[in-house]
Amino acid sequence: MPLAGAAEPSPEIGADRRTQHGPLRFASEAKARRIAAWCEAGLDATAMPFFPLLVLLPRAVVPLVSVAGLCAAGLVLSTGASKPRLAVKLTAALFGTLVVWGAFSALWSIDPGRSLIIAARLAALAAVGLSLVAATGRLRAPERLNWLLLTGLALGVAASAADLVTGGAVGAPFTDRAYQPAGLNRASVSFAIALLPAAAVLLCRGQKLLALAIGATTSAVIGVLAGTAAKAALLAALPAGLLLYLSRTRFARAAAVVSVLIILTAPLTFAKLAQLPLLPHSADAIKSSGGHRLFIWSFAGDRTAERPLIGWGLDASRAIPGGSDPIRSGQTWLPLHPHNAPLQLWLELGVPGAVTLALLIALAWVALAEMDWDPLFAAAAGASLTAALLASFASYGMWEEWWVSALWFLLYAVLVMGRIAGRGAAPRRAARNIPVLQQKARHSDQDDNDYCKRIPDKAGEPDPGLPMPFEFGIYRRHATPSR
After folding, report:
1. What gap in Å lies between CA 106 and CA 99, rounded to an integer?
2. 386-396 burial by CB neighbour count: b if 16+ within 10 A, else e?
3. Distance (Å, rounded) from C-alpha 374 to C-alpha 452?
């Protein structure tokens, strides 16, 4: 598909269909289309390197995702924007609340300068991520982007396997550090998050052998790599995906409630695990740092109890009093961060931070329940969300730039895949809001076409068969005109 076919906003029921070029309204329509075409080309260029960079140079994904976010913002502005949905406003408001509260916490933070710096970085990354999410509904060639993402995943898996087999020879030119198998942990957890949606979109497109190959190969590589979090995330994702496939709405709503409870009760649950008899020793037997992780959570819970309402300040974990005191040989009470997202929010931002995180996760689950996606892909997307949550609850720091950037990009990748995977039966509650004639037209279109194998329309015309974009809690229903 030529780049001259610039991205166009997909038709939306109830959306304002007037063209609104925003800051680019001074430009001619032809110029806006050229800008959109080049911005989409930029998104294509950033798709393939993502997973290989996680293997070779993990921190390089931050500038890569930032460039992708700039291209996405240009695409959105040049193609025009409809009136934001309520879910979009809620998502932006929640992220804004988190950033503002984090910046405000500098007033009592034990490291106020650090709190302000991290708040500024989070604001920038949130803008990048929301731009990527918004751009998924305006891509002119989502299938091309999807193949680039899948190719990048395959290259990343191959590079990680080669690096492991050669003892770090593949990544050696990109770092001056001694080789450690744990250096591939960032890549492996990203593979675990992306695997099931990648396999599902291939199945929906009729590529069964390719789906089996990428699923088996990626699973095997995750199994032999050192990352325990990636293995646990993938194992947790599989049953979650099955339950979502059997009853998506019920499981997603239940998952939203459970997620909220886990986050809000974290100081009373995660922080008490170290007190259970023999559990730290059992955790050490599974992983050398397992018992240490439980002691870290216990310390974070104790410090949270000292300032439960407002916390110690954004990213103050690395400076918490007593955190550098030794527990046992080579281990301290709090190295850098608690390795647990709920506990970190409680420790640093208190009740407002924990509640905001809980609402964001609940919003993601509720939106998943409402998506008009193919049932198989919707289940895979929910499994991916499960994997991401488990990794966040057991390993990385919430404010690590590479991790925040990777999560936004992985969300964007899933949404791109969702655009071409096909659509399934609309949830009942949403279907009641769709006019009867439009329901008939949509079902007629589904009867005439295999919705997992749609042929794109002519260049320059939006494809009415494309499914609705899932913009991190945005439920947009596309009208499919009768033919």
Report:
1. 11
2. bbbbbbbbbbb
3. 8
The number of angstroms, rounded, from the C-alpha of 33 to the middle of its chain's C-alpha atoms is: 29
Q: Which two tokens mark 417?
A: 């895949």
Q: Evaluate whether 19 touches 30 at the Cβ level (below 8 Å).
A: no
Amino acid identity, position 336: L
Q: What is the spatial distance between Cα 378 and Cα 381, in angstroms, rounded to a whole number?
A: 5
The bridge status of strand 326-328 relative to strand 331-332 is antiparallel
User: Which residues are bridge partners to 332 per DSSP?
Assistant: 326
* Helical (H) or strand (E) element with 209: helix 208-224
Q: Which residues contact 34 (CB under 8 A, 6 or more apart)?
A: 4, 6
Give the residue from 237, 236, 474, 472 showing the smallest Cα distance to 364. 472
Residue where the block lists tokens 């009136």: 83
How far is it, in rounded angstroms, from Cα 233 to Cα 114?
31
DSSP 112-125: HHHHHHHHHHHHHH
Q: pLDDT tens digits, residue range 376-388?
A: 999 999 999 999 9
Separation CA 404–CA 135 (nearest Å) = 18
C-alpha distances out from residue 433 to 371, 459, 477, Å: 14, 31, 10
CB 256 within 8 A of CB 365: yes
In this prediction, the residues of the chain whose per-residue pLDDT falls under 50 are 1-26, 425-438, 440-441, 444-483
CB-side neighbour CA atoms (13 Å) of 306: 10
Say how many Å lie between the first and final Cα of the chain, rounded: 23
In this prediction, residue 108 carries a pLDDT of 94
Whole-model pTM? 0.82
3-state secondary structure of 433: coil
Structure tokens at 246: 């059997």
Q: Residue 168: is it exposed, middle or buried by C-beta count within 10 angstroms (0-12/13-18/19+)?
A: middle
For residue 389, which of 192, 199, 254 has the smallest C-alpha distance? 192
pLDDT at 477 (0 to 100): 37
Q: What are phi and psi of 65, to 5 degrees?
A: -65, -35
